[in-house]
Amino acid sequence: MHDQNLTLIKDLNGNHVIQKCLHRLSAENNQFIYDAVCANCIEVASHKHGCCVLQRCFDHATISQKVATIYIIK
């Protein structure tokens, strides 16, 4: 499932779908996005569309989701 989410995150139009999910859904329902970002953090952060998604992840994350993402980045 992470591969499909990663494909959307890096896609020209798909990243907007992911960003809309981050904006509209609860943090609990968005956990699949945080899981995909954490599992592929370097790939997401170094991609032009993925970087936008990563920024929105931080905007809409709970404290525990932020900590998990930052821990992966370190």
Fold and architecture overview:
Residues 1-74 form the PUM-HD domain. Pumilio repeats lie at residues 1-35, 36-74. It holds the Pfam family PUF. Keywords: Repeat. This protein is mainly alpha-helical. It has one domain (2-73). Helices cover 78% and strands 0% of the residues. The chain has six helices and no strands. It has helices at 2-10, 14-24, 31-39, 41-45, 48-60, 63-73. Helix 1 (2-10) packs across helix 3 and helix 3 runs parallel beside helix 6 (63-73). The chain is globular and about 30 Å long. The chain starts with a helix and ends with a helix.
Q: What is the structure about, briefly put?
A:
The protein has 74 residues and is an all-alpha fold. It has 6 helices and no strands.
Descriptive tags:
74 residues; mainly alpha; 6 helices; globular
Instruction: Give the structural class.
Output: mainly alpha
DSSP summary: helix tally: 6
Element order: H for helix, E for strand: HHHHHH
DSSP E strands, number: 0
Q: Which word captures the global form?
A: globular
Indicate the low-confidence ranges by residue numbers. Answer: none
Taking the alpha carbons of the first and last residues, their distance comes to 24 Å
Radius of gyration: 11 Å
Which sheet architecture does the biggest sheet show? none
Percent of sequence in beta strands: under 5%
Number of domains: 1
Q: Estimate the mean pLDDT confidence.
A: 92
What percent of the residues sit in helical stretches (DSSP H or I)?
A: over 70%
Keywords: Repeat
Pumilio repeats: 1-35, 36-74
Protein name: Pumilio domain member 4
Organism: Helicostylum pulchrum
